[in-house]
Amino acid sequence: MADDPCVFPLKCAVQNYVWGKLGNQSEVARLSQSGNPDFKLQQDVPYAELWMGTHPNGPSKIYLEGMEEKDLGEWISEHPERLGKETNDYFKGELPFLFKVLSVRTSLSIQAHPNKIHAELLNRENPNLYKDANHKPELAIALTPFQGLCGFHVIQDVAKYLQDIQEFRTVVGTENAIKLITASRAIDMASHRSVMKNAFEAMMMRDKETLQKEVRKWVSKVMDMEEQGEDISQYNGEVLLKLHREFPGDVGCFAVYFLNHITLQPGQAMFLDANLPHAYLSGDCMECMACSDNVVRAGLTVKYVDVQTLCKMLDYTGRQPQKAIFAAIQDTEDPYAAIFKPPVNDFAVIRIMLPGDVAQYQLRPLQNASICIVISGKAEGTTRSLANPLKLQPGSVFFMSANEIVTLKLEVGSMLLFRAHPNL
Description:
This is mannose-6-phosphate isomerase. Its EC number is 5.3.1.8. It catalyses: D-mannose 6-phosphate = D-fructose 6-phosphate. GO terms for molecular function: mannose-6-phosphate isomerase activity; zinc ion binding. 28% of the residues lie in helices and 27% in strands. Among the domains are: 111-326, Phosphomannose Isomerase, domain 2, CATH 1.10.441; 352-421, Jelly Rolls (Sandwich), CATH 2.60.120.10. The chain is α+β, with helices and mostly antiparallel strands. It has 12 helices and 24 strands. Helix 5 crosses helix 7 (174-183), helix 7 (174-183) packs antiparallel against helix 8 and helix 8 runs antiparallel to helix 12. The longest helix is centred in the middle third of the chain and has 20 residues, at 208-227. The chain is elongated and about 70 Å long.
């Protein structure tokens, strides 16, 4: 083996948050059991996130025979040139992204992330809550059908819900409801955003007693409709009942009448830019994000909520649900690769789908370092810096230094892998 390998496997941390899928129902657990020899699966434990990167709360560790097992971040600090010149210069010797697999059983909080300038302000004013000064854009790519809330409905849809649902009207307030319904009949985006903000803010600030009473009244009606065989999809009934089961009486139950409900099919993605309200509801996905813990929450959570900050920062532009789907760009030089390239410098993600008739495939050199994970399929990976090939199978994670090539010799069958890298 070379003294200084530039490609090596990683052992990655698993986070057992309560919202994760249990036992072997979790893609996180399935991949960890296959790819990490230290992982011991327990059926009654939630496995929520697999972390690939240098985040101090779960750093990946180098896992290669004959090489000292150390944190990836520590190795990068000793070999900053391996990140590539652009990453090293732009991100000051740090890996700028955290790559994840998520397995979601119960809903995550209604939340948004600040932009860079706002993050710096929040961190300065309240460092105990907002612990860093970075933004936190996120990209979610579905591995299984993946449900979430993302962005505001077009105003006409919110107006119809206000007209049809007395309980929703009550928590928004009659005056706000009338103004929103009236504004929905004209084409004035600035007015639309203004009345949407006022209505949403009024709901989020509504006293807990009124809110819980109205949520329970409306949920009871929807349950009666369902029992009588009526169509509850017009009221987003299934999502409403799920949220109420998980967070009874929570303001997030009525948020379904403000926010678009999205179902991503495997391979589809959504990009969560700054100030975009969202919540993950269920399913498994790949996620890539900038290295930050800045989350502003306002519902569907037992964690600290900061309603005033959230309501001030949100983008209240109404969008059709399909606008939330973020398309990959097909690689013109590689028929098997497509890249999710969001408008941020911190990360991009390449999805590589190899059919069963491909015997050999080359992971091309990039000018910046990358992290790869195998989701399905098996292969041997050879590289100039390793004497022995990498044994790759589902759950295998490996780091590729800048300008390195890995040649995959595939076993029989197809293969799916994802590769995250700085978007420079």
